[in-house]
Amino acid sequence: MSETNETIIPATAVATALQELFATYPTDPEGTATAVVLTVTDPATGAQHTIELQPGQASWLTGLTMDEVATCRNAHSDGNGECGHCGGSGKAGHLDDPDPYLGEDGLIYHGDGEVDVEASAEMLAQEEPDPAAPGTWQCAECETYNGREDLDCMVCGTLRPGE
What we know:
Blueprint: H1 11-24, E1 36-41, E2 48-53, H2 55-75, E3 101-102, E4 108-109, H3 117-126, E5 137-138, E6 145-146
Antiparallel strand pairs: 1-2, 3-4, 5-6
């Protein structure tokens, strides 16, 4: 690709967008230790931009990325056409709770300290299953372990053997 291609987003723009997102929407109580440090490097200049993520932000970014993978997969001709972020509802979730955060126990809490049961269940359902757990299965295509309730691979969409 040409360096003048306008579809290429400079590293600075990507880093600035992520920094603004995470500065505007903290997920954990003030003083929570950084869980992940992302470094975005501009290949043209070598300039590096560092973004520090709280534990909840790391989980959020991972979920957002996986939702986008699902959206892309569902957009294919053999997909179901549903948005991976909203499940086809067209509605943003949890926006009525301005300060949700990930607790030390791994559950998601509302800003008022009450457990968000629905969001916690969704997050736990998206975690990669324990390969030793009864009923889990490994995808032959991408080797991801899936839960016994999963009819298709949560990463590549390959159907569970026998389905």
